[in-house]
Amino acid sequence: MTDTPTPTSPRPRLIALGESMVMITPAGAESLASADELRLHVGGAESNVASHTAALGVYSAWVSAVGADVLGDRVRGSVARHGVDVGWVRTDPDASTGVYFKDPGRGVLYYRYGSAASRMGPPSVENVPLEDAVVVHISGITPALSPSCAALVDAVIDRVAASDATLSFDVNHRAALWRPGEAAAVLLGLARRADIVFVGLDEATTLWGCELADEVRRLIPQPPTLVVKDGAGGCDRVCTDRRHGAGQLRPGDSHRGA
């Protein structure tokens, strides 16, 4: 892989790591089978987090890899326009940028196997100052992409655990990315190693058979903060253990002086 230009500052307050792709959807409310016009967007769970925190005035960086193609340029440029530092996004000349199609009413079609981001591994973060961040954010999507990405997540967690940074983990279960029966144990293990965990109650039910937020908390007692998202109920349940501290992001942490 080749490196992109040097980041604007060595100390982002939030570092989010994961794949972002080009999303292709019908321009109107119709299926891919009949649509004549399509729209291109950029989608990525982790870069979305960085974009939102950057909008709040927090200096945020996104770490990933894209292909040496026009779609990679589009992904990097789109995230950068939200005020996110993309200086640690690497270009892989031997792989393409991931793409997925969203078919209304039918689901999502992924074309990300062998993508640039799926080829990331522990060396991808060797020069990323994870220990200097307040929060490092990852999701359960990344370890599903490839064995090297699973190793990358382990390396990130180990480095953050040995530092003063806080590890934020969103379960983000994507069933299509996992082999049958594999996701539950892996995602549970990762959640138990994090400081802040986000999980949808529907995900917890599918993965671990938990139907109540308290059941999720009993299953995952380790993180100081657990956020159980209940879309059906219209609210989130935040289960915290105030005996432990967690890093906080403040607008004053912005590199832009916002």
Describe it for me?
With 258 residues, the chain is of the alpha/beta class. It has a domain of 121 residues: UDP-N-acetylmuramoyl-L-alanine:D-glutamate ligase. It has 6 helices and 12 strands. The chain has an 8-stranded mixed sheet, with helices on both faces. Strand 9, helix 4 and strand 10 form a beta-alpha-beta unit. The N terminus and C terminus are likely disordered.
Furnish the topology, listing elements before pairings.
Blueprint: E1 14-17, E2 21-26, E3 38-43, H1 45-55, E4 60-67, H2 70-80, E5 89-92, E6 99-103, E7 107-111, E8 135-139, H3 147-161, E9 166-170, H4 183-191, E10 196-200, H5 201-208, H6 213-219, E11 225-230, E12 235-240
Keywords:
globular, alpha/beta, four-stranded mixed beta sheet, disordered N terminus, about 260 residues, disordered C terminus, UDP-N-acetylmuramoyl-L-alanine:D-glutamate ligase
Entry summary:
This protein is α/β, with parallel strands linked by helices and 258 residues long.
The CATH architecture of the domain at 1-121 can be named as: 3-Layer(aba) Sandwich
User: For the record, what CATH class of the domain at 1-121 applies?
Assistant: Alpha Beta
Terminal residue distance:
34 Å
- Radius of gyration of CA atoms, rounded to a whole number: 18 Å
List low-pLDDT spans.
Answer: 3-7, 242-247, 249-258
What is the oligomeric state here?
Answer: single chain
The portion of residues assigned to helices is: 10-25%
H-E string: EEEHEHEEEEHEHEHHEE
